[in-house]
Fold this protein.
Amino acid sequence: MSSGSFFCVRADQRRPSENYLNQAFIEGNIQDNEGVSSLLINEKEILRHPGRKIWFSHLSKLERGKNTITVQGKDHSGNSASVLVHIRRESLNVHQLGARLRIVVTPFERESIGDNQQLSHGFEGLLLPAILKHRRFSLVERSRLKEVLEELKLSESGLVDEDTALKVGKLLAAGGTLLGSVLERADSVEIYARLVDTETAEVLTAVDIYGENVDIGLLRTLSRGLNLKLAKELPVAEGIVMKTDHRRITVNFGRNKGVKKGMKLILYQIGEVIRDPETGEPAGLEVEELGQARIESVTEDISFADLDYPSAVPISGRCVRRGIITLTSLFSFVKSLRHRQR
C-alpha cells in the first residue's frame, strides 16, 4: 500500500492465541491516502464501502488445531499489505460437566451525539441468542427477570443503574451481571460492556466493539463479536489441584491460561467411566461436585484459591485432596480426565 498507509488488526500476531470456540472475532482498522479499495480475510472480500479509513469486524470459522487468518488490504494503485493472525483451537471436555457462569443481561445505557439515530436498537435482543449459541455462559430466563422486576416494582429501564442491576442479579442467583453503554454517532456505534461479579461487585472484565455504516447485519456481527470477546477474557482452561493446605489450594494454571484474581472455581471429582450396558462403549463419566473456591492470587503458571466454607470440610466422607479432583470455574472453566485414585 502507499507510504501513507496504516494497518492495524486487534489481535496478537506475535504468538498463537488459544480458543475453544468455533469462531474468532477479527477486528481492526486500515487507512490509506489513496483510498482502500479491497479488504480480504482469508481471500473473502469484506469491504463494505471504499474509503481512506476503514474499520472492520468479521467472524472467522476455526478448525480444530492451528488456524492462520490472513487479513489483506489493497489500495486503488494495486499496492497491498497483509497481517497474519494465528489462533489455536483447543478441544476441551469441560462442557460435559455443564457448569457455566450464570449471568443476567441488563438494558444498555445509550447516548447519542447529534440527532437521535437509534442505530443500535435491538442490539441486546441479538446479543442474547449469541450468548446462548456458544454456551460459555448461561442466561437468567427472561420470565424470571420479569417476575423479580414486578416484585420490586421496577421497569427494565431501571436496570441501567448499576446498584439496582446488581441487587436484581443477586435475587436471581446470577453469578455475574452484564452492564453496558452505547455511544451512537451519525454513522457509527461504539459499545462498551462490563461483566460484574454479583457477589463482590468487582468488574471481572470489560470489552468494547465498534462499527460503522450500521445495519442489522453489522449489529448481528457485533453482538456475536462482543460475546466472543467476553469468552476470550474469561477463558476455558483445564487442570488439577497440585497442593492443599487447609482451605488454600494450588492449581496448575495461571496467567498463561488467562486466569485472573477473583475467578471462582467449582471443584469436581471424576469417578468411573459410564458404559453402555449393551455395547460396552464409554458413554460418559461419573462426576461429583465437591464445592467451590475463589482465586486469590495468580502467577504465570499456577494459581492459589481459597475454598468456600462447605468445601473445607469432608464431603461424603472425603476431603478435597491433591490430584484427585477436577476444577471447573464459573468464570474460567477447568477440566481434567484424571480418574479417582484407588
